Every structure is written in C-alpha cells, then in structure tokens.
Predict the 3D structure of the following.
Amino acid sequence: MTDTARLVVDIMSGDFYAGNPHEAWTWMRRNEPVYHDEQHDVWGVTRYQDIRTCSTDPATFANGSGCWPKGFPMPMMVDMDPPLHTRRRKLVSSGFTPRRIAELRDQVAGTCDEVLDGVAERGACDFVHDVAAQLPLIVIGDMLGVAAQDRDDLLRWSDDMLMSQGAMTEETVEKATIAFSEYEAYILPVIEQRRSSGDTGDLIGILANAEIDGDRLSDDDLVFETLLILIGGDETTRHVLSGGMLALLDNPDQLAALRADPALLPAAVEEMLRWVSPLQDMARTLNRDITLGGATLREGDQLLLFYPSANRDEDVFTDPFTFDITRNPNPHLAFGLGNHFCLGNQLARLELLEMMPKLFDRLPDLRLVDGAELPRRASNFVSGLESMPVEFTPTARRAVHA
Ligand code: HEM
C-alpha cells in the first residue's frame, strides 16, 4: 500500500473487519482521515480528535437515525438524542450506579470460578466459546434474572439480532425478527412479575420500579433497554477477554510481569481495552452541512466512528501498535465518549479485573494450541476472535464453591 494510490475498501463489509483493518485505518489517518466509501455512500472517521468532536456535539452528530452502520433505529437509548436520551439514560442508569456495581463484585468473582470450573479438568478448550463468551453471558443473564437453563437462548437471541445489524439480508432479518419476538415473550412476564411484586433485587426489578421526576419505563421501553444491555454487554466484553489474553500470550514478558505484580492489573485491563476495541464503530447522522478532516459533508450523511482506529492514533498514543500494560496515560475510546459513553463500562471492567487473576491462578500454563487458527468475526459492528484453541495442565475443580 503506498500513500499516493488512493485506497479503496468496503467499510460496510464484515470481511473488512475480519481481516486486518488496522492497515487500512493507518492509511486513512494519514491520507484521508474522514474516508468516503463511495459504494455505500458512508463516511469513516479515523482520527482520535475527530471522533471526539463527533461524540461531543449530539446536536450536529445525531444518533436518532440509528447508531448501527446503515442499520435501522430501534426505540432504545443508544438510538436517541437529547432530551429524550437524557431522560431515558437517567432511568436506566439506576441499575448501574457505582454502589450497584460494587455489590456485584462477589457474584462476578463466583461466576469467574464457575466458568473456570467448567474447563479446569479438561486440559484444553476453546477459550472464546468456553471462557470468554460465558462470563459476560452469565453475568448479564443473572442481572436480568434469566434462569441458567435459558442462557443458551439468550446468547442465540443476542447473536441473531447483532448479525442482522451487521449484515442485513433476508435471512438475517428474519432470524432477528424471530429472536426479538422470542426475547419479548420471555422477558415480558419477568417484567410483569417484578412490577407486581415491587421486587428490586435484580436489574429488571430496579428498572421496572424506577421512577425519576414522574418518568417511568413502560413495558416496551424495558424490552428494548434490556435488549440493548444484553447485546451491548454480551458480545463486547468477551472479545476483550480473548483478544487481551492473546496479546498477553504474544508478549510473555508482560504476562510474567502481570502475574508477578497484581498492582499492574488495572492499567493492563485498560491496555486490553485499547488494544482490542471490540466495538468497531458507532454511526452518527449529520443534522447540518459541515467540514471535518478536510472532507465536505452534507446534512443526512452517515459517519462511522472507528474507535479501534482512534485507539491506534499516532498523535495521541506513543508506539500505538505496541501492547504495553504499563501505558500511562491511556485515554482510549473503547467505550466511546460523550452522552452515549458506555453505561456498562464499570461492569465490563469489573468482569475483566476479576477474571484475569483467577485465570493466572487456576490455569497458570495456559497456552495456544500449536498451529491454532484464530478466525475473527466478520461483522462491521462488533468484531473479535471467533475461536482460540488453548491447552493447559488439567487442574481439579474447586472442592467448595464460594
Ligand atoms: C468491553 C466491553 C464494552 C465495550 C467495548 C463497550 C463499548 C460501548 C461503546 C463504544 C458505546 C457507545 C458510545 C458512544 O456512542 O459514544 C457503548 C454504549 C453502551 N453500552 Fe457498552 N461496551 C461494553 C460493555 C457494556 C456492558 C457490559 C454493558 C451493559 C451491561 C453495556 C451497555 C451499553 C449501553 C446501554 C450503551 C448505550 C449508552 C447510551 O446510549 O447512552 N456495554 N458501549
């Protein structure tokens, strides 16, 4: 790739993200920071400062037409603008207060052990399917009050709904429609039960009974907001766990340093988030004509904010392509920023902070299987490793569960 020939890529295609998009993003940051994909008439914003601009001016860069790349808006807060968004987010935030997240710590720690119990005796597993995907699924399932035997359904619903947004075909849309009606049929009785009992012991209960300035969430609001929490929290965190673990295995000196000194963990988790950035983009639609990064944009144009590209921006990060668990400062944008800044960021961090030391402790010689293939998900929205075969010395399950 030279700097003189214009790069032509399809930024809507899942294959772009399944390959190594960083090569293209590096070219774009240098040569065409607000990149135009002519085929789909969509723009890609690649520089850190430009993504900041787009994320902190919702009057110009709106979410109301949908935040999924060329997807359709849904009646959930991520597809809303102020003042509607502000009111909705206030209500849903009552389930994510710092106190509430702190209260979940023991439960999340127990879930980490439960997940590791499932693989410890086997000596080998698919780290993505058996470990990384399980943790957020169980955590969110428990928060939503979903019974253990129904978790597989939850995973299928969230997968089917995300795939339709990432690759809209007749088949994926049909699957998403079915998934949505199954989810709705499942969750409505749970909502009804929490409302009638006034039980605020779990997230659904808190949200079903929340009232702020006379505002409450209707059944429909709750169906969509819990769905957003499911798809927002389930598919993303898993990629940070798998991609972050892979980065540590690729950098054995840093893995050894981290195992030796748990005080390094918080900074290491931030670096895992920067490094992996599973949310490839969020869309914004222009409310007026502007120029950005040298490009002339028109009202109604759609822009994709490429968070992983911002997190490799040479103007902000020293040696951005070096994985460095001691990086400081590390102002990454993996969770976005502005009024839509990830509501689940503290929960995601908690899961990562609890799981990593347990992994080191219980599967100390975990390594990649020789010649393992590491396919990435072909999605233009959330992407990361689809599979990561690992092996380790089998260890016993814990005798007593915490
Ligand atoms: C490592 C894991 C995660 C990553 C990388 C991530 C990333 C993001 C990003 C980039 C945004 C959009 C920010 C913007 O448009 O400016 C977002 C929004 C959101 N995330 Fe996350 N997320 C993660 C985990 C979670 C979890 C665990 C939950 C909930 C349990 C969650 C719930 C949400 C919600 C509800 C929003 C919408 C907020 C709004 O529109 O105001 N996320 N997330």
Observations:
- Strands lie at 34-37, 42-45, 61-62, 124-126, 282-286, 290-292, 295-297, 302-305, 367-368, 389-391.
- The chain has one domain: 14-85+95-146+232-391.
- Residues 55, 77-78, 89, 140, 228-229, 232-233, 236-237, 240, 278-279, 282, 307, 334-338, 340-344, 347-348 surround protoporphyrin IX containing FE (CB under 6 Å).
